[in-house]
Specification:
The protein is an alpha/beta fold. Helix content is 46%, strand content 13%. It has eleven helices and seven strands. Helix 6 packs parallel to helix 8 and helix 8 crosses helix 10. It starts with a strand and ends with a helix.
Length: 260
């Protein structure tokens, strides 16, 4: 059995090795302390590694980070091969695209793990390439013109509904594909955010409630979601390797021993 993982920077392992590259790297903090004076001062003083490293070095870092994720740890516990397809900053559209593309190349069924990302992100074909767009990021030329047009015409309703359609598409594809043995979802916090804002689905709220019910028992949750006071968070908003380790243990316990 082979495991395939899809998602954004959480599943890709962002920040897991940052402590090796800063002399004054701060200790993990709680959710409420993410905006503390100490963390804000450190972030004002330091830049993310993606801005400090050249592309070649950062690509090496991204590969190394994935070795410390729940994906790697789960594969090690189960003693099976795996592929971590997560891409930092990706949208749910990108996740569905990569999942669909990957399944066409398989000859044997696999087990899939999908970590849904934020509704505010989206992917589109711009300037002869597929691009993910995230509010707050900087764009230039054709991409910038497209981005401005998109954000000025979209609403919370359209963003949330588009996200829902992608999630439904992923569920339907995994449910019917001969190449998917089993599939699960990973909640890094975005599913909580979506549920707290479910009024934005408008006339598609019943459809949201339906898919929410369908994925409830096949969703695993990052441990940091259980305790907002625990010191789980790294400076740029991701979580410690201990959280990845515990998540892998939680999944392994259910998949291999049927213990929740």
């Amino acid at each position: 059995m082979t495991l395939l993982f899809f998602g954004d920077s959480f599943t890709a392992g962002a920040e897991l090795l940052d402590h090796l590259h800063y002399d004054d790297y701060p200790k993990p903090v709680s959710l409420n302390d993410q905006k503390s004076n100490q963390i804000e001062a450190w972030k004002n003083k330091n830049k993310p590694l993606i801005q400090l490293m050249d592309k070649k070095k950062f690509d090496v870092l991204r590969k190394e980070q994935k070795k410390h994720t729940y994906a790697q740890k789960l594969a090690d516990l189960m003693q099976v091969p795996h592929h971590n397809m997560a891409v930092g900053g990706s949208s749910l559209h990108k996740t569905r695209y990569l999942l669909t593309k990957s399944l066409t190349k398989l000859t044997d069924p696999v087990t899939i793990f999908v970590q849904p990302t934020a509704p505010e992100r989206w992917m589109d074909y711009v300037n002869n390439q597929w691009m993910d767009f995230i509010p707050g990021n900087s764009y230039q030329g054709v991409a910038l013109a497209y981005f401005k047009s998109k954000v000025s015409n979209n609403t919370d309703y359209s963003r949330f509904c588009s996200w829902l359609l992608e999630l439904q598409g992923i569920f339907d594809h995994c449910s019917t594909s001969d190449m998917v043995k089993k599939f699960y979802f990973i909640n890094s916090g975005e599913l909580n955010y979506v549920d707290n804002n479910k009024d934005k689905f408008g006339d598609l709220l019943p459809a949201y409630e339906s898919i929410k019910h369908k994925i409830r028992d096949i969703t695993f949750h990052f441990p940091h979601l259980k305790d907002n006071k625990a010191k789980n968070f790294l400076p740029w908003g991701h979580v410690t390797e201990l959280n990845h380790e515990q998540l892998a243990i939680d999944i392994h316990r259910v998949l291999c021993y049927n213990k929740k």
